[in-house]
Amino acid sequence: MMNSINMDMETNKRSPWNTPEVPMHFSIPDTEVLQDSSGTSFVGFHIHVNGVHHCTLRYKQIRHLHSLLKQEFGSAALCPFPPRQLLKLSVKQIEERRIQLENYLQKITRNPVIVSSTTFCTFLVSAQKETHNDNLEKVQLPIYLMDRQKTLVDVQSMEQSRTVLLKACEQLGIPAEVFGDLSLFILRREDNGSFSLVKQLQDFESPYLALRSVFGAVLLVIRKYTWDLSADARFLLNASALDLLYAQTVADFENGWLHATEDQDIKLRLYQGRGDRLKFLEFARNLKHYNYVQFMPCICDFPEPDSMAIVSAGNKELCFQICGATGDIVQEWCFKVTRIRCWRITTLGDALNGTNSSNTAQLELSFEYLMSKNKHRWITVRSSQVVLMSLTLQKMVEELVKKANGDNSEQAGKIVTQNTLPYIRMDGSKQEISSSSSSLANDTSDHSTPSRITFKRDESRDRISFGNSVYDDIGDDDL
After folding, report:
1. Strand pairing of 195-200 and 453-457?
2. Could you count the other beta carbons within 10 Å of the beta carbon of residue 446?
3. Taking a C-beta distance cutoff of 8 angstroms, is the pair 363, 51 a contact?
4. H or E element: which one contains 388?
């Protein structure tokens, strides 16, 4: 059976079910009968986040999470939890429970306060740790800039992404003023020297464990991750931040993400050869697709079914470069974010996405686009990077809303506390777990205010949909 999320929110009404800061697609596509150390059988529910297997949990572990969240946020902030069954479940009842638990996780993760809480994130990191049978230990985690400059960061194996990023920035001398413009990514290097982004790490993940779960030649990298070009000015004020921005721009240029004419290419390489970073960056900012993210080749149904395309995102648009039979670019279409009425992610089945194929769901992204006045068309992309595409779309919308609201605040990060909470393992034993929490020193966002991204639920398929309220701002002049 296939399920999906649909969440409607009015933009002028406060609601406990607001959009998370990043879209997360929680699902439980299947279950497995396991045995504990005593030989007792139990059902393990495979929790997938953004299409990738994150952890496996028992019913009582998810119920324990519900209890922890209830203590912290109260019953009103949560939906009812699926009730216990006294007798052994039949196959049909197990399937019903799978659907109930999936719906429960999908509903509570609509609340950004819950999703960003230390309780929720630490629980998921602990579950990830237990699933991968990893012992808590101090490790030196290699983190790279885009020029392959490596920094060894001392971390606990289950420390969360934001804490690890903060430690890396402190060690590199990158100032807190640009922390909100950065993110950790897992990057794959190909034999020919090119690279692709496998995934953006979320705060409920341990970068150490996430890196171990991905096969192939991969690196953990820090990248600037904002579509606001004015953010570049903050990077130019600090030598270490400038190094990061320059390394990323050079890497994107050499990877073919920036589109330069022959003369532009010569000039850029001249500045690069001289080591003139400021001139290089100043010139690169004027190139086509500067500050874009390019995804791996994919299949789309525009302009024709089964078209091969290279999709890029940046400057408030999605750009489709349509490939011919020989792989050459034959057409280019750009879709403005402000004309996308909504988009959705649909789960299709198992496929490779940088991890084990049995643990990864194949996804497709569809968006409804205003082609001309009163004429909409659904455009679908099938790719292993669908979730990253959706994250990119949401971030562009959020930055557009922030700019429209005149919010120019900068976010500075710092590690603030050590948190401890009880965790129930699969075998029923209890342990106290702790994890550093991090905060944004200048984060004054009101999480009770609804986001401009809305959700809708489609009961017929495993699908999460995002409604784009920036679309509402379009007038006749925009067409």
Report:
1. unpaired
2. 8
3. yes
4. helix 386-404
Question: What pLDDT digit, counting tens, does each position of 229-251 carry?
Answer: 999 999 999 999 999 999 999 99
Average pLDDT over residues 253-276: 96
Backbone angles phi, psi at 77, to 5 degrees: -85, -5
CA distance 403 to 475: 18
Confidence band for 402, pLDDT divided at 50, 70 and 90: confident
- Strand 375-382 and strand 293-294: pairing? unpaired
Compute the average pLDDT of residues 366-373.
Answer: 94
pLDDT of residue 43 exceeding 90:
yes
Q: Are 102 and 79 in contact (CB under 8 A)?
A: no
pTM for the whole thing? Answer: 0.79
- What does the alpha-carbon distance between residue 228 and residue 403 come to, in Å, rounded to a whole number? 9
Nearest-angstrom CA–CA distance, 385 and 425? 32
Kindly tell me if the per-residue pLDDT of 273 is higher than 90: yes
Pairwise CA distance, residues 477 & 378, whole Å:
23
Return d(Cα 259, Cα 279) in angstroms, integer. Answer: 17
Amino acid at the residue 62? I
77 close to 114: Cβ distance less than 8 angstroms: yes
Q: Which of the 8 DSSP states describes residue 240?
A: H
Output DSSP code: residue 21.
S
Q: Tokens 């890196």 identify what position?
A: 211
CB neighbours of residue 105 within 10 Å? 19
**Phi, psi angles (nearest 5°) of residue 456:** -135, 150
Taking the C-alpha atoms of residue 386 and residue 353, their distance in angstroms, rounded to an integer, is 10
Q: Report which DSSP code applies to 124.
A: H
What H or E segment, with its residue span, contains residue 377? Answer: strand 375-382
Structure tokens, 5: 């999320």
Q: DSSP state, 258?
A: S
Cα dihedral 162, 168, 170, 171 in deg (nearest 10):
160
pLDDT tens digits, one per residue of 301-341? 999 999 999 999 999 999 999 999 888 999 999 999 999 99
Give, rounded to a whole angstrom, the gap between the first and last alpha carbons of the chain.
Answer: 41
Please state, in angstroms and rounded to a whole number, the distance separating the CA atoms of residues 101 and 6: 16
SS3 298: strand
Residues 332 and 246: their CA atoms lie apart, in Å, by 28
Q: What is the CA radius of gyration of the chain?
A: 23
163 φ/ψ angles, rounded to the nearest 5 degrees: -65, -45
Query: Considering the chain, what percentage of its residues have pLDDT values greater than 90?
Result: 54
